[in-house]
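Batch manifest line 343
LIGAND: 6-O-phosphono-beta-D-fructofuranose
JOB: complex structure
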Amino acid sequence: MGKLIGILTGGGDCPGLNPAIRGAVMRAKDHGYECVGLVEGWRGLVEGKTMPLTTASVAEIVSKGGTVLGTSRTNPFKKEGAVEKCLDNFKKLKLDALIACGGEDTLGVAARLYKEHKVNVVGVPKTMDNDLSATDYTFGFDTATTIAVDAAERLKDTGRSHRRIMVLEVMGRHAGWVALYTAIASAADWVCLPEEPVDVKAMCANLKRAHAEKNVAIVVCSEAIDIPGKAAGKEELDEFGHMLLKKRGVGEQIAEIIEKETKIETRSAVIGHIQRGGSPTLFDRILGTRVGVKAADLVSEGKFGQMVALRGDAVLGVSLEEATSKLKTVTPEWLKFAKIFFK
Ligand code: F6P
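JOB STATUS: finished
ARTIFACT:
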């Protein structure tokens, strides 16, 4: 057998993972490598669970949502003996290299495996949250936000019929990119971002004005915002120490505040995981494919400990450690830009 690359996808899935897998497998072949899939993220390497990945099996997955490899939020560094199992299985499976597709958590594990155990690993950035600092965009974001814009426009239709204010809660974790892009692109009337406190007075004044003009007003609300006047409670954490945001219900809480302040009937809707499903947009198909191809190039060049990044129109390798050290949240420049529309 020739040289072998293991490919895994970890963390929350997002549209664009299958194009990335396809790109990596097809390019790996050009470099004389075969590929094997490690199923369900790092769990696949911990348990040695694999599935075949051939150019034939990935030929048509470019348009498919989700990930054909499955995923999980397994963190080998949090489980007794799991890192040793990863190292052991890397040898047993006769892997020459690993391509890990993930967000800050999955790639954080990749960075540590490279730094602390010299594992030949290359990272591919994915996340609908678009919160990885070393790359301009991550695939998954474009599709997720396009779906959210559609949802906002649908809410506007029903809201207008009923003369209501509508609140749309979107995912995005501690970065407000999804909410901000959705709000601007759907011509919403307000956006609530985790990067800044909600100004209830300004928001309600603007909503009343918009509602008087259009018979409807819409607010896009990011899932991790702090609710004004509410002390932070104890939150449930995942294996990576992140807050499980699913139980917070911030959209509903913001809707209650708005209704009380404006005296206008208000409803909320949570789009949740619908944002992560479905066929990737053109942008995500192309970006996913490009970063997958580049990951295979980096492997063939022996450039381990790197992550593929999009900078302008170029895809290039950057240090995995650097790429996972800081979260990319909405910048002051973007907050200023948002004020043009939400004031
Ligand atoms: O990180 C991607 C993401 O979709 C976040 O926006 C969201 O908070 C989280 O994953 C949801 O995770 P899960 O699928 O585990 O509920």
